[in-house]
Amino acid sequence: MDKKVAIVTGGNSGLGFATAKKFCDEGTKTYIIGRTKERTEEACEQLGKNAVPVIFDLTNLEGIPQMVEAIFKAEGHIDVLVNNAGINMKKEFIDVTDSEFEQILRTNVFSVFAISREVVKKMKETGGGNIVNISSMAAQYGMPKVIAYSASKTAIEGMTRAMAVDLAQYNIRVNCIAPGFIKTKMTAKALDSDPPRKEKVFSRTPMGKMGMPEDIADAVYFFASEQAKFVTGTVLPVDGGNSIGF
Predict the structure, then answer these.
(1) pLDDT for the residue numbered 8
(2) How far, in Å, CA of 29 to CA of 148, rounded?
(3) Closest CA to 234 of 18, 242, 244, 224
(4) pLDDT (tens digit, 9 = 90+) per residue, 183-203?
(5) pLDDT at residue 2 in the model
(6) What is the pLDDT of residues 208-225, one digit of tens each?
(7) What Pfam families does the record tag this protein with (predicted)?
(8) Each residue of 30-54: pLDDT tens digit?
(9) Which of 32, 69, 80, 178 is deepest in the core (most CB within 10 A)?
(10) Cα 215 from Cα 74, distance rounded (Å)
(11) Is 54:78 a contact under the CB 8 Å cutoff?
(12) DSSP conformation class of 225
């Protein structure tokens, strides 16, 4: 992995940052795509010499081909793409507007398709690669007040399987991680402000705790490595058993 090049979208915070850190620590040159210049550059400073900031808004679908082309020209190959960037919105079903629903899908689904398509073109030229998509528990079971997010993450899991079948002929593997409740600032804030939900999360998680961002990073790294060379089209819950808990 120390001779490979990776792209991690949304790699300047949370699970994306932990994933980028794993790749950088293993010697993989990692391009961190983020919308916020200051946050993305600061993250890359923390990640060290193997991290390269790319300030780009993935909802700019028309600009994605040029952005991918620039990375490819600089490196000559792109070996790993981690589609981590995404946004959420908590709102009552009947109050969600068409434009809000569309915004979630544009960020969480359309951009994933667009950047994957452009990266695949480059991977074909160089003999293959790996794509790892990030899903959610919202695609594993019904969750209230996140209709657009749930729809987007369910789409990601379907896309993962379809992409895996389409791209295996080019030596490109495509897999997906479905994180459970992971200990991040955002998750802690959400659960601490909603004690009943927090109690429900822990009561249905057999391991009785939240995961760490590094748990997701390790799973992503496994899929991207040669250790998973015969694995494609898989959706792996990393959730302490939450998705099968009773």
Answers:
(1) 98
(2) 34
(3) 224
(4) 987 788 778 888 888 898 999
(5) 83
(6) 999 999 999 999 999 999
(7) adh_short_C2
(8) 999 999 999 999 999 999 999 999 9
(9) 32
(10) 31
(11) no
(12) S
Q: Please, are residues 239 and 180 in contact by the beta-carbon 8 Å criterion?
A: yes
What's the whole-number mean pLDDT along residues 132-155? 95
Average pLDDT over the chain, rounded to an integer: 96
Catalytic positions, written as ranges:
149
- Distance, first Cα to last Cα, the chain: 39
Domain residue ranges of the chain, discontinuous segments joined by +: 5-181+212-244
In the CATH hierarchy, which fold is given to the domain comprising 5-181+212-244?
Rossmann fold (3.40.50)
Is it the case that residue 162 has pLDDT exceeding 80?
A: yes
Closest listed residue to residue 85, CA positions, set 156, 142, 141: 156
Asked if residue 169 lies in contact with residue 180, where contact means CB atoms within 8 angstroms, the answer is no
What is the C-alpha separation between 142 and 122, in angstroms, rounded? Answer: 37
Q: Residue 37: how many CB atoms within 10 A of its CB?
A: 11
What DSSP state is assigned to residue 207?
Answer: T
CA distance 202 to 143: 15
What is Dmax (Cα atoms) for the chain? 52
Closest CA to 246 of 141, 146, 145, 149: 141
Q: What angle do CA 187, 233, 84 make, to 5 degrees?
A: 30
Instruction: Find out whether 28 and 52 touch, Cβ atoms under 8 Å.
Output: no
Q: What does the alpha-carbon distance between residue 41 and residue 133 come to, in Å, rounded to a whole number? A: 23
- Tokens describing residue 222: 């496994």
The CA distance from 39 to 30, in Å, is 16
